[in-house]
Design goal:
Strand content: 25-35%
Radius of gyration: 19 Å
Helix content: 10-25%
Shape: globular
Order of helices and strands: EEEEEEEEEEHEEHEEEHEEE
Largest sheet: 7 strands, mixed, barrel
CATH architecture of the largest domain: Beta Barrel
């Protein structure tokens, strides 16, 4: 069944609020500017919203052509300026040693004040695509119908295991978690018009997304970031419980699969409303 692109999103700074776009030029490395920056702690280890939920309150905007970055904080304060880079340093990125350059200016101090932890803004390691899984995971996709199925799974879970410790968005008296915001999953593309979990059937196959050709590699496993509200970073939904309840039997290399990732074989523009489906 063919679908259409219903949303396009990137994260200029890994862990911060995602940015919605109307169109992108998809390259073999994914969307230019996606995860262009990340944050490292005092030990040089990469951190994200799983550890610091308040990062999602920060709204980043990065103009790649002018080389300017702005960070808007929930109190209305904005730190902005041209991106300057220091000398490369040793960092740990997904547990692996890398070299990355720190961003100069007031950005790191502002983020540290907001989170209450000493964090440093870094440019993504050179030579490595910004996406987490490298070039073979340059894009991620999730069907809107799959989100609705997850809501149904949440309702079933809350009914089966009511608890006084249930988080907002699903209680013993109101088991329906309500519509689940797709931004929780930080996927590149949302797809409307497909069957629930139809994207599962695309693994190992080639699909067209707008004018780009993508080979879908595998399921995307989920982590605790998805339990956080995408605007506030507050933990408010038992997303992982819902996924284990409904998707634990899916054959997947990554646990708790929801959505898929793939490699861009042929670059091209992708716009909201463009067709998505198996390549002919």
């Amino acid at each position: 069944m063919a679908g259409t692109v219903s949303w396009i999103s990137i994260a200029p700074v890994k862990g911060m609020r995602i940015q919605s776009l109307n169109e992108v030029e998809l390259t073999c490395d994914g969307v230019p500017g996606d995860r262009a920056f990340f944050l490292a702690d005092e030990d040089g280890a990469m951190v994200n919203g799983k550890r610091f939920g308040s990062l999602m309150e920060i709204i980043p905007a990065h103009d790649r052509e002018s080389g300017r970055l702005s960070l808007e904080f929930p109190d209305g304060a904005t730190v902005e300026g041209e991106v300057g880079l220091g000398e490369p340093e040793e960092v740990t990125f997904f547990g692996q040693p890398e070299r990355a350059r720190p961003v100069t200016g007031d950005f790191s101090d502002a983020v540290s004040r907001h989170t209450g932890a000493r964090l440093r803004l870094m440019a993504h390691p050179e030579g490595r695509p910004g996406v987490d899984r490298g070039k073979w995971g340059g894009v991620t996709l999730l069907g809107a119908a799959s989100l609705e199925s997850l809501r149904e799974a949440g309702r079933d879970f809350n009914c089966a295991e009511p608890s006084s410790e249930a988080l907002p968005g699903g209680t013993a008296s109101d088991p329906d978690p309500g519509p689940i915001d797709g931004r929780r999953f930080r996927m590149t593309f949302g797809v409307e018009g497909t069957r629930p979990y139809e994207e599962d059937d695309w693994t190992g196959r080639e699909i067209r997304i707008g004018e780009a050709l993508v080979r879908v590699a595998a399921h995307a496993g989920r982590c605790a970031v998805t339990t956080r509200d995408p605007d506030t970073g507050v933990t408010d939904l038992k997303t992982l419980h819902f996924l284990k309840h409904s998707r634990d039997g899916v054959d997947s290399f990554e646990p708790l699969p929801f959505g898929v990732y793939g490699e861009v074989l042929e670059p091209g523009p992708v716009r909201i409303g463009d067709p998505v489906g198996l390549a002919g």
